[in-house]
Every structure is written in structure tokens, then in C-alpha cells.
Amino acid sequence: MNSSTPKRKSKRGGRDLPEIVTEILRLVGEDPAREGLVRTPDRVARSLRDLTSGYSVDVDKLINNALFTVDYSEMVLVKDIAFYSLCEHHMLPFFGKAHVAYIPDRHVIGLSKIPRLVQVFAKRLQVQERMTSQIAEMLMERLNPRGVGVILEARHLCMEMRGARSQLSPTVTSAMLGIFREDPRTRGEFLSLLKSS
Predict the structure, then answer these.
(1) Of 21, 78, 126, 162, which is most buried by a Cβ count within 10 Å?
(2) CATH architecture, domain defined by 67-195
(3) HEC string for 33-90
């Protein structure tokens, strides 16, 4: 997987993001000059830059100096990692929890790096299925463990606010690599640990 990301520019076609947001406000029938909207284009621009800041993160630098040689070969699980992302189809939020586990093979990663890795991929325009795979594949590639398991549970506002208008219907996706895919006992232990409080 290539961790390089396209460089982000503040201007597209000679216009900057606040100008584009101003035009969108006009197109939906609003008056960008009214009191409540005067500063909205700048706020939306800052918000979008933050919500898509994962494009500018170098994953190698994020993980750098956080791999440690440890004599430990049992499962490591970080669960209930809260995340917020934007679906690439409607640019509406989806949000939930990520559960990430791996079984080391001589190396472990600093625990704080796992939630940070989840945030890197969440802060891009996403589909939940791809995000799940990206987290698992990146850990597998950089850490070279015996296996990785990732489960994401999320609510999608593009499905709740429009379209199907299906309320409180979480979507669950999983990626099982290495021993998590090959050994039902390992996969079962992962799922059992998720159920424990």
C-alpha cells in the first residue's frame, strides 16, 4: 500500500474554498450576506480541511520510532476507538467505533499509534469498507505481525438523513488478515474479547 498522498491545494481553478462555499449557499437558495451566514464560508473551509486532514499525514512518520522488540506473542486489542469520517458519496458523516487487534511476531507498536492510525484513515473521504481494509493492511505491512483483525461499527447519516432514512441501523465491517483469517480459534478469541466489558 502506498502511503503517499496527493498534495492539497487551497485553490482550485483560481477560486478558494470559502468562495466555493459562498456559491453553494447561493445555489441552495440562501443569502450569504445575511448575518448568520457571513462567516460560514470560512468556518466550512476550516472544518473541511480538518475533516480531511488525513490526506496530509505520512503514515511512516506517524509510526516512526514506535515499533519495539518485545517477547510477546499473544493478542493485543485496542477497542472502542471513536472515529468520525465523511462518506465519499454524499460528504455526510459516518461515525462509530473501531476495534483493532493483532498478534505480534517479535515487534509491537506503541498503543497510542493504533487510534492515531484509525484517525488518519477516518479523516479522508471514505467508504467504511475501504477504511476497514486500509487500517488492517497498513498494520500488516508496517508491523509484519502474525495477523491483524479490524472491525468497524458505524452509523451513516447519508442513510439516516436521506435516501432509505433507516434510523439507528449500524453497519459492521471486518478485515481479518493472517492468522485471524486462517485460524477460527484466533478469530473467535477476538470476537469474544469484543463482547467482554
Answers:
(1) 126
(2) 2-Layer Sandwich (3.30)
(3) CCHHHCCHHHHHHHHHHHHCHHHHCCHHHHHCCCEEECCCCCCEEEEEEEEEEEECCC
Q: Is the pLDDT of residue 5 over 50?
A: no
- The hierarchical CATH code for the domain 11-51 is 1.10.286
Q: What residues are paired with 11 via a beta bridge? A: 16
Enumerate the domain spans of the chain. Answer: 11-51, 67-195
Q: Is 182 a catalytic residue?
A: no
The catalytic residue among 90, 107, 137, 160 is 90
Given 30, 153, 158, 160, the catalytic residue:
158
Q: Is 107 considered catalytic here?
A: no
Predicted local confidence at residue 3, as pLDDT: 47
Q: What are phi and psi of 16, to 5 degrees?
A: -95, 170
Q: For this structure, is 90 an active site residue?
A: yes
Among residues 99, 119, 126, 128, the one annotated as catalytic is 128
**What mean pLDDT is predicted for residues 187-193?**
97
* C-alpha cell, 182: 486462517
Give yes or no: 74 in active site: no
Residue 87 designated active-site? yes
35 included as an active-site residue: no
pLDDT, tens only, 137-165? 999 999 999 999 999 999 999 999 988 88
